[in-house]
Amino acid sequence: MEHSKSPRVSLGLPVYNGENFVSEAIQSILEQDFDDFELVITDNASTDRTADICLEIALRDKRIRYVRNARNLGAAANFNRAFELSSGTYFKWCAHDDVLDRGFLTDCVRALDDNAGHVIAYPRLLGIDETGQHTSYVERVLPDMGGSSPASRFRLMVAAHGWDAAMFGLWRRDCLLKTTLHEPYYGSDCALLAEMAILGPFVHAPNAILYSRDHPTRSVRLPSAERLAWQNPDGSTANAFELSTRVKHLVAIAYRHRGTAPLGSTLLHLLAWILDPLLVARFCLEAVGVVSPQLRSKLRGAGLGALRRIHAVSGRSPG
């Protein structure tokens, strides 16, 4: 049997009940002006029309591979499965509700080809709404990482609390294989980006554009209980311990890569981050949740409301 060579780029699209937007997301991938890619769709046992939509499109394009999980594995495991089934030199996770500009892959591939020591090429990220109309949202661009140490890059990404442009940028497969991948808790992507930053700097591909869609069923908009079930359907509880779990994960990452970034430096950076007053308040909320999840929810809601009022006055986004 003749085997074709692996594509330069693999795109993994994990999805669960994404019938509203998945067709548009796939179409934006198929319309890329860079065509040496495969698209691996991992369907987390959707109960809507997601399977029908994906299979219909896959029949028309041999670059698409549709895989349906026998049961809902949770978001983290489904993201990891999309990567594990891929084979390209470069890899990108795709959200089922986002849209790529036509030159996205060309510009990100060029950025990694031209910067051999960099591990992620990230685009400009602009906001769109449910209907695809542009919003005012523009994700920040972080400082240039070139020339910075592994420990300082780790500190930068820990403090960033996540970064969608990089999360949904283009990654070097060989570097991603050295990581812990996604763990089954909400916020694991933040830790994964910090781990990748230890392995190398990120490079900005400013001509690549990712349109990030905001809508009511987006994971960040879900109530805590639904968000927990989305991430880990077999282990959801009333008290998330999301931040505490992330800290534990970051400590494990620091130890794992102690040969690249001195353990003392990464742990000091982590301690400085943990002592931020807002984070201390979040740890206290998690502790309150042990005794009373209802009180935790009320206090969390009051805190978020206060933050929104503060940011509204200052003209800044709380994200």
UniProtKB/TrEMBL annotation:
Pfam families the UniProt entry points to: Glycos_transf_2
Domain called Glycosyltransferase 2-like: residue spans: 11-131
Keywords in alphabetical order: Transferase
SUPFAM superfamilies on file: Nucleotide-diphospho-sugar transferases
Keyword Transferase annotated: yes
An annotated Gene Ontology molecular function: hexosyltransferase activity
InterPro entries: Glyco_trans_2-like, Nucleotide-diphossugar_trans
Record-given protein name: Glycosyltransferase involved in cell wall biosynthesis
